[in-house]
Specification:
single chain; 407 residues; alpha+beta; 10-stranded mixed β-sheet; 12 strands
């Protein structure tokens, strides 16, 4: 079995995901995706006719993001027409899943050069997007599935994690992201997005608020009480009632708000994988290899709790323990996800989300996993460390995970 070698990773800056305010919001998602696909070629000089596949993650595959964005973006980037492409959806886990599938193809010996990545333009209108379960009443009877923000509040209530702890984590995320940006820690992977006329659309992170403090966060109203009482149709249960169907005695305390939830942003990221034989034959210097991957399911009603068992599963597959991991990335979909992850695994917090996370930088759903893998790779090199573990919660109560090791 060949190692799946990571040759390079790059990403766009994240733009605010709001029409009229976001620096990327006026662009077609295929163009934003093609930016990173073209950058991989420019940075590494490979022949795109050698690309066996482009495996792309995009969660909201409607409107402009529909129609196999990965294939269309590869064509838009000038890839050879023989480079095929596929687009997948594991909700927030799409970016890690695209990387895992690319790695699997290389490790199986079926493909030699594969690009993975993802795009999400959260500024796009959400026409055609249904609640979790897509209105399947039979499924909701078996597994009631609520809104993710209400799920986050439910988990915090069940775990007894107070808002003060979540706000402290959010403030720390902002501080770490600010330090990372000031010290240029993201510069190695960051590629600017250009307008079609050649002017710069965005060349820096647009979302962070470095002046954020725990005190300023304490003044923000909770985001999800009204959403908890929302009905998609007059006959459907509220999001709160969906959780109470399975946890009837739970009185949800609403502790998440705009500052301790992931930011709504636009962005894209890409990773270049090669087999050992291909890399050697073409003079490519690998930066890392994939050690192990895993997928894990958990309670779909609470939705966000799979990262801890996913981390344990991927460690078992790798024959490693937590002590073998130098850097962890757990996506900050909501503060409670990252807080619970660190508590349950009793992690050294100095090894987790070292450069901040989605509460400060934003979470472009289908792209985030690819962003996190690249972030860990850059940070391992910066610190001269060896092994990183990346995981994240995903809709439906899932979590993909991956362990990478520098070579």
């Amino acid at each position: 079995m060949s190692d799946a070698l990571i040759i390079d990773a790059c990403r766009t800056p994240r733009g605010i995901g709001k029409q009229g305010k976001g620096a990327l919001a006026h662009l077609h998602p295929q163009h934003v995706a093609s930016t990173v696909l073209a950058a991989l070629v420019e940075r590494n000089g490979f022949d795109t006719a050698d690309v066996d596949d482009v495996v792309w993650g995009t969660s909201s595959q409607v409107m402009e993001q529909g129609g196999d964005l990965g294939r269309m973006a590869a064509l838009d980037a000038g890839y050879d027409i023989t480079a095929s492409g596929a687009t997948l959806d594991r909700f927030c886990g799409s970016g890690i899943t695209s990387a895992n599938y690319a790695a699997h193809a290389v490790m199986a010996g079926m493909e030699d050069l594969v690009v993975s990545g993802g795009t999400e333009m959260m500024s796009l209108p959400k026409k055609g997007i249904l609640p979790m379960g897509a209105g399947n009443e039979h499924l909701q009877e078996i597994h009631p599935q609520s809104h993710q923000g209400v799920c986050a509040d439910a988990i915090a209530t069940l775990e007894g994690i107070p808002r003060e702890d979540l706000d402290a984590l959010a403030a720390e995320s902002q501080a770490r992201a600010d330090q990372a940006i000031r010290e240029g820690r993201f510069d190695k992977s960051l590629v600017p997005v250009m307008n079609l006329d050649g002017s710069v659309a965005l060349d820096h992170e647009q979302f962070p608020r470095p002046s954020t403090t725990a005190e300023s966060l304490a003044s923000l109203p909770p985001s999800f009480p009204q959403i908890a009482d929302y009905r998609h149709t007059p006959e459907s249960p509220t999001f709160r009632e969906l959780i109470n169907q399975k946890y009837p005695d739970l009185e949800i305390e609403h502790v998440h708000h705009a500052g301790n939830s992931s930011g709504v942003v636009d962005g894209a990221a890409a990773i270049l994988f090669a087999s050992e034989d291909y890399a050697k034959a073409h003079g490519m210097k690998a930066r890392a290899r994939v050690v192990a991957t895993a997928n894990m399911g958990d309670d779909p009603t609470l939705m966000l709790n799979a990262p801890v068992p996913a981390a344990r599963k991927v460690l078992e597959k790798a024959g490693m323990t937590l002590d073998d991991i130098d850097i962890f990335e757990i996506n900050e979909a909501f503060a409670v996800v990252a807080e619970k992850f660190q508590r349950d695994l009793d992690l050294d917090r100095s090894k987790v989300n070292i450069n901040g996370g989605a509460m400060a930088l934003g979470h472009p759903i289908g792209a985030t996993g690819a962003i996190l893998i690249g972030t860990v790779l850059d940070e391992l090199e910066r610190q001269d460390k060896q092994v990183g573990l990346i995981t994240m919660c995903a809709g439906g109560g899932m979590a993909p995970a991956i362990i990478i090791e520098r070579v």
